[in-house]
Amino acid sequence: MQVTTNSSKISAKETLLTPRFYTTNFEEMAKLDISLNIQEFEAILKEFRADYNRQHFIRDEEFEQSWSNLDKKTKTLFIEFLERSCTAEFSGFLLYKELSRRLQKTNPIMAECFLLMSRDEARHAGFLNKAIGDFNLSLDLGFLTKSRKYTFFSPKFIFYATYLSEKIGYWRYITIYRHLEKHPEHRIYPIFKFFENWCQDENRHGDFFAALLKSQPNFLNNLEARLWCRFFLLSVFATMYLNDFQRSDFYKAIGLDSRQYDIQVIRKTNESASRIFPIALNVDKPEFFQYLDVCASKNRLLIEIDKLYENQILRNIKKLPIYLSLGWNLIKLYSIAPIKSSAINSTIR
Asked: Model pTM?
């Protein structure tokens, strides 16, 4: 931790569940033919250019106060929430900015879309980092850029993962916003008032990746695609569920039950994804959330072991059976037969 005159610079701790920084095969991305869905891309680009949130992320006088009244535990959890959110937004900014730069000559429509999405993500990350500054801290984004390991994903995996990330981000933000709109007494900090318009950026970004997927039918219309869609749905849902299980006290501080919140977000994201993906997960099967509960409990045990034992070898010995149990329950989750998207969409209508 580096201390500056007014604040401390912090670097996010990296675990299996922290937001990741991605890179991809830029040459393969540059060769993508989006002509099959060009009209939708042109419509989305028009929305991006409109920049509906140009004047939205402006701090008002409500931010100009001391936050020392927050109890220590709530403050720690809230700062962690801000830090993780800022890291995720900044990760998106870096990826989209690089994609825009690499695609300028070969695919100007995609390049401009990525450029304007990077604008949105930078705006979000900056707003979050200013919020962290209210607690005399700042996330060292320059350090993150240089030090964080980058995970390589092929373009189609980027599309699956980022589509779901943007859509689940929408449902997370709008669910918190609507809850606090009804229960303003739980709004511990003014940033939550910005979530309604903010999540529309996430929704538009998700629509862009949906258009990309639809422009490449082989990413959606065969057995391999169905297996990967199933994998990424489960990965995104499980990551959120395990993370939020660790941070249930934060959600309690804003008047939410973390488990019920996650169940609602998962159901809504599953419905949204069913409009693009050929399959959806069977979240109505009782075992689905039961298995997730077991995984979350096992993950908490892993965290407790890190706190209890300093010796790395002993930690690994203690963790091994827990990892095996966690992995087995994830396999059981993946083994739950999915539902054809057409079945879900017919009930939504």
From this structure: 0.91
